[in-house]
Design a protein that fits this description.
Blueprint: H1 5-16, H2 27-42, H3 46-56, H4 64-76, H5 80-93, H6 98-110, H7 114-125, H8 133-146, H9 150-163, H10 168-180, H11 184-197, H12 202-214, H13 218-231, H14 236-247
């Protein structure tokens, strides 16, 4: 019996150190660990997030959120193939998962799979209950622009603004596309709309003043730059505005 003691101890220790992912995790703990994983992802800590996801994987294997977070983690780790597989599993489990379709499109686009990326964005935009369609519209516009389809890019950028007129990146995107196609007056109009929708956006004010300079409307540009300096004197945009005013003297 004495000779068997080490073997018995080894077996006991082995059982004691069984990985938690092989055990049943109660639903409440699963939810807590998913929330913790999300927190780590927001903090750009994908490995820490993955550790939480591994623990609950067997107990949440039919939970699309698990695979969505896993896709985000792999994306942050630049493992595009694993990220795609994770997002695909998420939408298999939940076909109306707009955020997962959008992210799947982003990863497909990053991998150069343009047709698959477009299909994913289209699925996201077709969902009535997708809460942030402006993201998919912005990404679709980016995809179209990347392929040189500027008119389609502009159409999707405008669609995004119809979905959410307070989403600042869409004003920037639309103005950039209009400038690229030589439509400076329209770029100014879009940025004026943006400033009305988001008066707190100093970046849109800078962009508007820059477009006015391109059109030769320097006096109007000076007023915008002066307003930025007056309203936000300690901002980086104020420094930019001061530089422009010095050049425009």
């Amino acid at each position: 019996m004495i000779r068997l003691l080490p073997l018995i101890l080894l077996l006991v220790m082995s059982c004691a150190h069984t990985s938690r992912q092989d055990q049943f995790i109660p639903p409440r703990e699963v939810q807590s660990r998913l929330e913790l994983a999300e927190k780590y992802l927001l903090e750009a800590e994908p490995r820490m997030a993955m550790e939480q996801l591994r623990i609950v994987r067997n107990s949440a294997k039919n939970n699309p959120t698990l695979y969505f977070f896993q896709g985000v983690a792999y994306e942050l780790l630049n493992d595009l193939e694993s990220s795609i597989m994770s997002y695909e599993r998420a939408v298999d489990l939940h076909p109306d998962y707009g955020e997962a379709w959008n992210n799947l499109g982003q990863v497909r686009q990053a991998a150069g799979e343009y047709e698959a990326a477009q299909a994913a964005y289209e699925r996201a935009l077709a969902l009535d209950d997708y809460m942030t369609p402006e993201f998919a519209a912005y990404n679709m516009a980016s995809l179209m622009a990347e392929q040189g389809k500027l008119d389609m890019a502009l159409a999707y950028s405008r669609l995004g603004l119809e979905k959410n007129r307070r989403y600042t990146p869409l004003y920037q995107q639309s103005a950039d596309l209009l400038r690229t196609t030589g439509r400076l007056e329209e770029a100014v109009e879009v940025l004026e709309m943006g400033v009305l929708a988001r008066p707190d956006s100093l970046r849109l004010r800078i962009m508007l003043a820059e477009e006015l300079i391109r059109l030769g409307r320097e006096n109007e540009a000076r007023k915008w730059f002066a307003g930025i300096i007056e309203n936000a004197p300690d901002s980086s945009e104020a420094e930019t505005a001061a530089h422009y005013l010095e050049v425009l003297k």
